[in-house]
């Protein structure tokens, strides 16, 4: 069987079977969140299982989400893997900050402008996020649940009085590895997503 066809077969099986154990954990989501399919590139090395995101579209919807995927390969160094993933995600953090502080942002007003950083300070912070994202993070930390080993990094990027939060968690389940990523632009939503992450079982 060709490699691509084999991988597609594995992907289909993963989407059908792997979420079953986690289905009950996302059955009672808050009314403003919805679970949907997560489709990833066939060459990403990950099999998308599902995404949790805001139910209603909005200007910041893309910056609030919880993604769950199964890795195709085993992880030899889980701590380095999560650190590398955090570094790869910083482009989205920078994008969110630039949207927030865009002078043409229709939500910008006197209250926002009071805490707006100067363009120089904003870009200096974004450069630091890109070059040393681990400076803003706690971890990697290891723990165990009933499924197996957990390795995670928890980050808070503070930009001009606003916060952008990111959680990258690796979950080992037997010989399989799952990655869970949660992202939000405020503490309230992030805590909400973090609670959902802690409820997942594989």
Overall description:
- The chain is an alpha+beta fold and about 200 residues long.
- The protein has one domain.
- About 35% of the residues lie in helices and about 30% in strands.
- Strand 5 (about 150-160) and strand 6 form a beta hairpin.
- Helix 3 runs antiparallel to helix 5.
- The model is unreliable at about 15-20 and about 105-115 (pLDDT under 50).
Q: What is the ordering of alpha helices and beta strands?
A: HHEEEHHHEEEEH
Unreliable runs = 15-21, 106-116
Number of helical segments? 6
Q: What's the Cα radius of gyration?
A: 18 Å
The chain-level mean pLDDT equals: 75
Helix coverage percent = 25-40%
> Could you tell me how far the N terminus lies from the C terminus, measured between alpha carbons in angstroms?
29 Å
In what range is the share of β-strand residues? 25-35%
Could you give the order of strands across the largest sheet? 1-2-3-7-6-5-4
Shape type: globular
Q: How many discrete domains? A: 1
The secondary-structure class comes to: alpha+beta
The tally of strands reads 7
List the helices and strands and how they pair.
Blueprint: H1 3-17, H2 20-23, E1 33-36, E2 46-54, E3 65-71, H3 78-100, H4 110-115, H5 119-131, E4 137-144, E5 149-159, E6 162-173, E7 176-184, H6 187-199
Antiparallel strand pairs: 1-2, 2-3, 3-7, 4-5, 5-6, 6-7
